[in-house]
């Protein structure tokens, strides 16, 4: 047995640690500012909002092969991440089995895409292309050029938005590596390819040369030749790939612009058409460093494709979920206005604090995105105009943690808030000790109610910092370009013995339900899904089920719920539940664990002032958190994320000046019945079925509305409206042709039976009897599926294959759903496809006439909406105050709630030390509830107070949190 230096979990987020602020005048202390953190190494980021560096470009969000097929990834994921541009293969190209631009262009351009580049050489199936340039047959390549360009012109709905790249990495192994021998050949070939493209499509835009790195000598010759022969590219491209390019890119950029000036060219638009390596993908703190460089120089840039197509280059999770990096990309896409001067501790040094800042005067918001350091961060803010922001500002800081490539991450929480008098310089110390995290700081005029931090109690521990038995801690180099990221650069593997375990002690604040999470790597192609046992105080309390992954280094996330009593507990992750039998698929790399107190149903509120609202006016005096004026054709867009597939109450808070209809749409599907019947404050709540992960919710109000927030709350009790059908159930499913019931090999994460051999021909399909209660209407079809098909011929890309399921309705239409590769035929994921049924009785037909469908364990049909309530009166009038009292040397949090409404309410009060409910609190009455912390010292925190009552016969829920200061009672 080996023991790590420490077995104490790390409370590293600002939900548990504090931040300090300084300014000339401190107006009010935010809940995260009450107790300064211990002295630690600090990096300063200076932001001068008075110095504009130009309009925000947003061009660094591009990606190579970021999209795989139509529906992979989903529209909501694309729209939220907001890539402006992509590079995909040539239409019908054989280089990879997916990524055809004609297949993905709809999803890309309908979700905000500006232009799409296509690598013409990717028409070839092999790598490097054909083994080298064919000396006596370059004309055969020009025929491919003609074919590709003509295909786009004739078959694309957006030919004018394509940019053609005739050569990919010509300086490497692809045809022209030896410049002394092949330089003149390349220049002649460039001219021939350029002229061929223009011959087919005179309006075509052309990009190049596309070198695999900055090549100053080659670039000089290329530009000189191209200018002399009138074949200059419309867009200049090259790659910046390795970690070292975080140090060299800016000098390369400067050298290129200087060369343009010397030659009298341009300036041409630049696209860095591949950037970053495996170590960077999925890591917010790494990606923000790249975004910063490219935004500073106002170029477009695309992440490289190292693993497989269709998952934004590892910057999303599963079929439709966010990981930590996706939230960073969304924040980046949310920016507007001008970028402003940011001075980091040091430029051009990898893995250091870097940041982007913008000022949007029209929206009256200033935003800073930053990260990349293990040190505490000191934000030094200056140059904010009181004519725009007023005399007092609110600052909210959110953290996007690294969650692994396939580790789902929910909306980043508020980890610190500050209310400050606007001054020449304001300094905020942000508690941070993880260079893999990125942060968003948003500055607004002071809101009617000061924002508070997320009160959720949560603790983390590194796997290698637990007591290790019969397992091995491994180093994963954070500087190696090809090594997937690991928290703190280490993980624990070789978890393959009956006696293997990881054990640590944790103190929890209250009796209740806790969510245990593990970031882990599962070698799905070799082992399938996996399983561990979670022991509490020596007794098995739960089972941890891990979904299959790409490899031990490619991390996902597993979660399970466990009941704990307040106080100290020994937690142990074990590879055997009975001490004698190894659990199936137990050989899993474990990176880090977390434990979170669960208080009630999953609920997340999304303030309208931080949603995407275009040019709509933001009113910071309306509602507690401000509001956005929506009218006419305008709309506001939210991107809520949910942990599991099922029903949710989607509550929209708004105010109107009269009767007004509200256009609410979920993933572009209208939800009818939302609106106000008179002037006043309103809460409209739609019970909606949402697929796991990210959805797009848009709100329009042609007659005008002041929208303040969208709150999404799990409504698990409504899941009974979902109809589940086991695919192998012959009483409900009839198989035709070669479609058949099969046994799933062990280990697996389903019951053991599936339906396979669907598709591959028109005769191989399943007919599902239509449930009687499900008539015509909008539905979600959720499918538990497996698809591990892939090509095996490429040198380094995984070349996964999307399988499609055609969902037909007898007498109705057919919908096609894309089901991405999920690593193992033994492991199953759940993916949700929107389906509109037009008949009341037509049976469903599942198959695929043009290819293979995924293997299916079960399907679920869920009505999209179950009803809408529109409640007048807005919020209940609830007041709360939280204080700390010392009793017998221990700190107690006392929460006083006053019902100032005209109706009785039920109240739920949550603190890091427990949750209490008050069944009935009459109008005008107050109640005080004490929570024992069992600690001599506690940090500042927040008590959540949720009140529910009936207003005009309709249920209304309001929240009135109270903050308390840090206290020491010892």
Short description:
The protein is mainly beta and 970 residues long.
CATH architecture of the largest domain: Alpha-Beta Barrel
CATH class category of the largest domain: Alpha Beta
Number of strands: 66
The biggest sheet amounts to: 10 strands, mixed
Work out the radius of gyration.
29 Å
Enter the CATH topology name of the largest domain: TIM Barrel
Based on helices, strands and strand pairing, what is the structural class? mainly beta
Mean pLDDT: 93
Beta fraction of the residues? 35-45%
Low-pLDDT windows of residues: 1-38
Number of domains: 6
What form results from the Cα inertia axes? globular
Total DSSP helices = 10
CATH superfamily of the largest domain: Glycosidases
Helix content: 10-25%
Protein name: CBM6 domain-containing protein
Keywords: Signal
Signal peptide: 1-34
Domain CBM6: 459-596, 723-862
């Amino acid at each position: 047995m080996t023991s790590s230096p420490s077995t104490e979990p790390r409370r590293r987020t600002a939900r548990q640690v504090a931040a300090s602020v300084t300014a000339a005048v401190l107006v009010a202390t935010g809940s995260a500012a009450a107790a300064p953190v211990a002295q630690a190494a600090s990096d300063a980021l200076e932001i001068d909002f008075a110095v504009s560096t130009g309009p925000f470009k947003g061009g660094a969000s591009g990606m190579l092969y970021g999209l795989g097929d139509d529906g992979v990834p989903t529209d909501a994921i694309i729209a939220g991440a907001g890539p402006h541009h992509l590079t995909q293969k040539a239409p019908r190209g054989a280089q990879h089995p997916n990524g055809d631009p004609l297949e993905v262009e709809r999803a890309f351009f309908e979700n905000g895409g500006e232009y799409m580049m296509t690598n013409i050489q990717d028409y070839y199936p092999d790598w490097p292309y054909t083994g080298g340039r064919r000396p006596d047959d370059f004309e055969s390549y020009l025929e491919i050029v003609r074919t590709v360009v003509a295909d786009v012109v004739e078959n694309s709905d957006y030919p004018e938005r394509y940019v053609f790249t005739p050569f990919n990495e010509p300086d490497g192994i692809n045809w022209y590596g030896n410049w002394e021998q092949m330089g003149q050949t390349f220049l002649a070939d460039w001219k021939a390819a350029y002229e061929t493209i223009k011959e087919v499509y005179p309006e075509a835009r052309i990009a190049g040369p596309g070198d695999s790195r900055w090549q100053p000598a080659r670039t000089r010759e290329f530009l000189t030749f191209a200018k002399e022969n009138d074949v200059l590219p419309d867009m200049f491209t090259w790659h910046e790939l390795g970690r070292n390019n975080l140090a060299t890119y800016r000098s390369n950029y400067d050298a290129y612009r200087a060369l343009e000036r010397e030659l009298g060219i341009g300036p041409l638009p630049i696209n860095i058409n591949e950037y970053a390596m495996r170590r960077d993908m999925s890591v917010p703190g790494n990606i923000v460093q790249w975004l910063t460089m490219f935004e500073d120089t106002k170029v477009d840039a695309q992440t490289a494709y190292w693993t497989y197509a269709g998952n934004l280059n590892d910057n999303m999770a599963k079929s439709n979920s966010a990981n930590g990096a996706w939230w960073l990309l969304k924040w980046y896409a949310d920016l507007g206005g001008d970028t402003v001067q940011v001075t980091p501790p040091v430029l051009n040094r990898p893995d250091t604090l870097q940041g982007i800042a913008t000022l949007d005067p029209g929206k009256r918001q200033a935003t800073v995105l930053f990260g990349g350091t293990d040190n505490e961060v000191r934000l030094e803010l200056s140059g904010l105009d009181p004519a725009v922001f007023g005399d007092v500002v609110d600052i909210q800081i959110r953290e996007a943690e690294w969650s692994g490539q396939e580790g789902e991450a929910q909306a980043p929480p508020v980890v610190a808030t500050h209310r400050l008098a606007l001054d020449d310089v304001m300094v905020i110390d942000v508690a941070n000790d993880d260079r893999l995290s990125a942060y968003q700081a948003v500055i607004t005029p002071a809101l009617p109610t000061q924002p508070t931090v997320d009160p959720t109690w949560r603790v983390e521990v590194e796997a290698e910092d637990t007591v290790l038995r019969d397992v091995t801690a491994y180093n994963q180099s954070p500087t190696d370009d090809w090594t997937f990221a690991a928290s703190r650069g280490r993980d624990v593997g070789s978890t393959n013995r009956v006696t293997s375990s990881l054990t640590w002690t944790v103190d929890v604040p209250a009796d209740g339900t806790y969510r245990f999470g593990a970031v882990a790597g599962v070698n799905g192609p070799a082992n399938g899904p996996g399983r561990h046992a979670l022991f509490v105080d020596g007794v098995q309390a739960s089972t941890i089920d891990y979904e299959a992954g790409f490899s031990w280094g490619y991390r996902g996330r597993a979660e399970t719920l466990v009941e704990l009593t307040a106080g100290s507990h020994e937690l142990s992750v074990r590879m055997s539940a009975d001490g004698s039998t190894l659990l199936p698929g137990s050989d899993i790399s474990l990176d880090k664990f977390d434990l979170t107190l669960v208080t009630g149903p999953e609920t997340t509120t999304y303030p309208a002032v931080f949603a995407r609202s275009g040019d709509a006016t933001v009113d910071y005096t309306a509602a507690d958190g401000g509001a956005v004026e929506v009218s006419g054709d305008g709309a506001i867009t939210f991107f809520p994320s949910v942990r599991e597939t099922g029903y949710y109450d989607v509550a929209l808070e708004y105010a109107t000046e009269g009767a007004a209809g509200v256009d609410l749409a979920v993933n572009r599907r209208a939800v009818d019945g939302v609106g106000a019947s008179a002037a006043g404050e309103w809460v409209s709540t739609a019970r909606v079925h949402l697929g796991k992960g990210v959805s797009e919710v848009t709100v329009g109000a042609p007659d005008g509305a002041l929208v303040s927030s969208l709150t999404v709350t799990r409504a698990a009790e409504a899941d009974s409206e979902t109809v589940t059908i086991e695919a192998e159930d012959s009483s409900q499913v009839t198989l035709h042709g070669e479609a058949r019931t099969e046994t799933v090999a062990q280990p697996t994460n389903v019951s053991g039976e599936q339906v396979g051999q669907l598709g591959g021909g028109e005769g191989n399909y399943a007919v599902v009897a239509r449930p009687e209660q499900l008539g015509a209407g909008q539905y979600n079809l959720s499918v538990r599926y497996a698809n591990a098909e892939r090509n095996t011929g490429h040198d380094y890309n995984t070349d996964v294959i999307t399988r499609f399921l055609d969902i037909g309705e007898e007498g109705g239409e057919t919908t096609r759903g894309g089901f991405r590769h999920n690593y193992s035929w033994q492991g199953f994921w759940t993916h949700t496809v929107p389906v509109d049924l037009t008949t009341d009785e037509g049976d469903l037909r599942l198959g695929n006439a043009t290819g293979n469908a995924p293997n299916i364990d079960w399907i679920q049909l869920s009505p999209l909406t179950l009803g809408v309530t529109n409640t007048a009166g807005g919020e209940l009038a609830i007041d709360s105050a939280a204080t700390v009292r010392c009793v017998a040397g221990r700190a107690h949090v006392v929460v006083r709630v006053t019902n100032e409404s005209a109706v009785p309410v039920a109240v739920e009060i949550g603190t890091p030390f427990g949750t209490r409910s008050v069944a009935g609190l009459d109008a005008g009455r107050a109640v005080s509830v004490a929570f024992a912390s069992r600690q001599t010292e506690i940090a500042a925190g927040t008590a959540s107070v949720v009140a529910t009552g009936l207003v005009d016969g309709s249920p209304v829920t309001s929240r009135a949190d109270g903050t308390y200061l840090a206290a020491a009672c010892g």
